[in-house]
Every structure is written in structure tokens, then in C-alpha cells.
Amino acid sequence: MEGKIILSVFFCSLILGMVGLSQSAFAEPFTVSPTFVDSFLVFAQIDSGAAHAFSTDGTKMFVLESNGEIIFEYTLGTPFDISTASYSGDFFSLASEGNEIGGMAFSPDGTKMFVVEGIERKVLQYTLGTPFDISTASYSGDFFPVPQVQNNCLTNVTFKPDGTKMFVVGSFGDAVYEYQISPPILCAPPTLGDWTVNTSCTMTSNATAPSDVIIPNGIVLTIPNGVTLDINFATSNLTVQSGGKVLIQSGGAIT
């Protein structure tokens, strides 16, 4: 809805045993005087809601069930209008990674999801094979440990839209902590000219080298499962200098 921002928060009724989301709209964006608009009950799937998030376009909503560490996915007929929400039938269990899962956040493109494990003070990273499709999520094995001196029990995480900053908050400490995230190393050949791999890296997608590929001393180029580096050996060379390495994992290839 143009000129308005939708705010959603959890509400619980111990008497009725209901869990849901309430929606408010702001007459003026980014003010603290919202007007209640609507609500959506999720108690059919959730006993105790701990966090929620939306896809970038507002057509999907995700709710974390804290008792079972499960994320449920909902579709919205109208973006960011929870009165049009319905359960998609898709869910993802986080139980194998922890038992005190708190807040969650998605990358803008929907290919990464982050949740916090409160007791062990970790931010866990998941990958989604299909953007914003929770049924395609899997744990990447990557996590960031938050020092105990900064917080004893994490409850939420959020990111700057460009992914260069992360913010965490917990139930103790009375503070929001900010972390700088270095941009990822680009591990792909240029569109023109030779590719001299100056930093050890792992390719993440198929690529075609336009000319020579050069691996200097001390550099390791890793080609993982499912990734192919295409080099036209009729016109180009792969040069691995003394001390350099090309590591082709099972399922990876140079053609």
C-alpha cells in the first residue's frame, strides 16, 4: 500500500490459547503512531511464535515456532496484507542445529536465511535452493559465534540491505551489537582477458574463461561439486605456477 508501512507483531492470549499476528499501518512512514488494521491467527500450526519475516516482495511470510524450532511458510494474496495470508503447507525444522532458536532474517534475494541459536550464541546460515521457498532450505554449516561478553542469550538478528552489516540483540545486555561483514571474494573469470587468481577461492557457479587462467604461487582455486570451469584449450591455457594448486572436488570439472 503506497505511503504506508506494515508492522506485524505477535500477540498471545492465554485464555483463548490463540497465537497470531497483528497488522498496523502508518499514516506517515517510519513514525511511531500506527493504526490497527487486521490480524491473522497461526495457532493451527504454531503453539508459541518467536519470530517472523517476509519475502522482499511481501508475497510470503515466515513464522518461527519456538517450541518445535520449525519455520512455517505462508502465502499472501496481496503483498504485506496478512488478511490475505494462508498456510502454504511448507515448513522447515531447525531442531538439529539447536533448541533455543530465536529471530530470523533473509537475504534480499531469498537464497540465504539466518537464525540465532540463543543459548550457544550463534548466528546460523542456511541456503535455499529456490528463493524464499522454505522447503528447499538446508544448513550450510556456516555460523558466527557471538562473544559471551557481548550477550548471554541471543534473541534476534537483522542485516543492512546490502549485507555489509549485521545487528544482533539478546535478552541480556541492554544493547544492540553491530558487526561489519567483509564483501565476499569474487571467484569467477572476468568477461575479457586473462584470469589471474590472486586470492585462494572457491567457485560457486559455472563459468567460461575468455582467455588464459593463471594460478600463482600459494594460490588454491577450488572447483566444488556441481561446478564447471570451461576453458577453450584451442586458444587458451591453464597455467598453474609452482606452489599454486587447482583443487577439483568430486563432481566438479574443468572442460
Write a short abstract of this structure.
The chain has 255 residues and is mostly beta strands.
Query: What percent of residues are in strands?
Result: over 45%
User: Which class best fits the helix and strand makeup?
Assistant: mainly beta
Main β-sheet, spatial strand arrangement: 4-5-6-7
Please bin the fraction of helical residues. Answer: under 10%
Under the CATH scheme, which architecture of the largest domain would be assigned?
7 Propeller
Q: What radius of gyration results from the CA coordinates? A: 23 Å
Which descriptor suits the 3D outline? elongated
Could you report the average pLDDT, rounded to the nearest whole number? 80
Kindly give the count of domains: 2
* CATH topology description of the largest domain: Methylamine Dehydrogenase, Chain H
Q: What is the number of strand segments? A: 23
Q: How would you sum up the major sheet? A: 4 strands, antiparallel
Low-confidence stretches: 1-20
